[in-house]
Amino acid sequence: MARLQRTLSLGSVVLFGIAYMTPIIVLGTFGILADVTQGQVPAAYLVASVAMLFTALSYARMARAFPQAGSAYTYVRKSISAKLGFIAGWAILLDYLFLPMAIWLIGASYLHSAFPAVPQALWVLAFIGVTTLINVVGLKLANGINSLLMLVQLLVLAAFVVLCVHYVLGDGSQPLFTLEPFLGAGSSLPLVMGGAAIACYSFLGFDAVSTLSEETRDPQRTIPRAILLITLLGGLIFIAVSYFVQLAHPSIQFESVDSAAYEIARNIGGDVFVTIFLIGLIVGQFTSGLSAQASASRLIYAMGRDGVLPKGLFGTLSARFGTPVNSLLLCGVVALLALKLDVTTSTSFINFGAFLAFALVNLAVIGHYFIGASQRGPKEIFSYLLLPLIGMLADLWLMANLDRMAIILGLTWLAIGVIYLVKLTGGFRRQPPEMDFSEA
């Protein structure tokens, strides 16, 4: 019987995680964050990085305890309860189901800025159609191609930073190193927190490496270290890039906040560089959207196969292509909401699900180690009670700082999940079906 080979090293797993996060997204959402924070984007990323590190620490601890697929769903189900595990899975479903929509919306916004004669709706429909078709056929991008595309992103980011530095030094009106982007005259904690709540969108996927446990050497040691390194490196990239971009463009006035980096790229590098930047960003968004839709469809298929969602509709694969076609089509239909939503609301809505899942994973650490395993010495109280409690409170605080529409949509999604759980369990009288993500 064929088995997955444990060939991945720590470096390979970290590269996968960074690529999954799509680092160039820091440019894709820069205008939105600049508008929300009134020009304090690096400060928002700094707060988001600290909050995510607490949660990443909890993910690392749970990955060590349960080195298997399923992430937040598995951790909460096994350490607290099956019903609360379902709610964690429902929160993850929100992320997976709506993430492709946000990715394609960001890409469409930038293409519309480059080609204003073409309606943004057409770009959205093109993204949906092409990626859905590719995923239905079942094309898998090779690791070498993914690495190459990752290199393109990092080179574009590096070029953007270099041109920002050149622009700032050439302008001569401000120093290269200053606290202004962090503690400017218009800064305030509510504004920074509001920005941090959106900035956490850039970190989505840091836990995705938990799915590589069966292919990683010494997974109980490697996966937790990788989760922390990915979060730390991602945060450093986001803070550094946004710092230099903020210096080059301290103003918060843009033709469109949804595609502000396009305007900045032209200002610092001219028409040639803005074309290179656009290619890099669209390639990043396209490949990210392709992976996000594929992942979402597999999650929906796993839920259908295990009876959590209607099995006849979502628990089957295409006889011709061997892919979950109905699940892929559902992702495409959901993505049509991009025709009615803006980038800010769509990313914030997704973050609601992420913060809920993150908070539950922090709670799972307390449930598994502090309560279940009775590890309550001075060191354990710090590691398994205090730190995850801080992480959970940080996640809930960030959730409360999302925009009002995102909170309403998120609470609506949560209410639907609770109602569905009541139906699934016969009024909580029986356990919900257990989902097996290992084959998804």
Automatic annotation (TrEMBL):
It is found in: Membrane. GO terms for cellular component: membrane. The keyword NADP does not apply. Its main location: membrane. Keywords: Membrane, Transmembrane, Transmembrane helix. It is a multi-pass membrane protein. The chain crosses the membrane at residues 12-33, 45-63, 84-106, 121-141, 148-169, 189-206, 226-245, 272-292, 313-337, 349-369, 381-399, 405-422. GO terms for biological process: transmembrane transport. Residues 15-357 form the Amino acid permease/ SLC12A domain. PANTHER family: AMINO ACID TRANSPORTER-RELATED, PUTRESCINE IMPORTER PUUP. This is Amino acid/polyamine/organocation transporter, APC superfamily. It comes from Pseudomonas kuykendallii.
